[in-house]
Amino acid sequence: MTNSPAPSSPRNSAVRVGLIMGSQSDWETMRHAAAVLEALDIAHEIRIVSAHRTPDRLADYARTARARGLSVIIAGAGGAAHLPGMCAAWTSLPVLGVPVESQALKGMDSLLSIVQMPGGVPVGTLAIGKAGAKNAGLLAASILSLGDGALATRLEDWRAEQTDSVAQEPVT
Ligand code: RP5
């Protein structure tokens, strides 16, 4: 992995999805969400925002998200993964939480930290790791497609391509 910044959408396109993560170390997982957003041509921004280490940055980010035009936030974190829940505390936008696989507990800590939100402040929780990140990108696309017919078509095409790629028989 290089130290160059993660690719974000061009500055002139309206950013619709905020992709945030608690640490640089989460990028290896969260890049799979970014890849889906790029494949579906969804303008997004990518930021490191930690609930623990940069709490003011998180508050600023989440509180201004709707006014800045974002529609969905994808938040990935590991361990004591407070980022999605605290983000959802600051904004009523849909927040999709991705539990990043941790070394100590293989992401069970991340999953339980994110999924067990008390009633009243929802976080849509995805699977642990790469699959969860990928599906967060797809779920963000589904949400946005409700008001965007062109994106709905791109999403349907993406799904059809996936279906076509499944072989009838396994290779021996
Ligand atoms: C969390 O702590 C991050 O989301 C990350 O998954 C985990 C470990 O962070 P680093 O110690 O690698 O920065 O806040």
TrEMBL record:
Domain of life: Bacteria
EC number assigned by the record: 5.4.99.18
UniProt xrefs under SMART domains: AIRC (SM01001)
InterPro entries cross-referenced by the UniProt entry: PurE_ClassI, PurE_dom, PurE_prokaryotes
Domain PurE: 15-166
Enzyme class: isomerase
Record NCBIfam families: purE (TIGR01162)
Family (UniProt): Belongs to the AIR carboxylase family. Class I subfamily.
UniProt keyword terms in alphabetical order: Isomerase, Purine biosynthesis
Protein name, UniProt field: N5-carboxyaminoimidazole ribonucleotide mutase
Summary of the function given for this chain in its UniProt record: Catalyzes the conversion of N5-carboxyaminoimidazole ribonucleotide (N5-CAIR) to 4-carboxy-5-aminoimidazole ribonucleotide (CAIR).
Gene3D superfamilies: 3.40.50.1970
Catalyses which reaction(s): 5-carboxyamino-1-(5-phospho-D-ribosyl)imidazole + H(+) = 5-amino-1-(5-phospho-D-ribosyl)imidazole-4-carboxylate
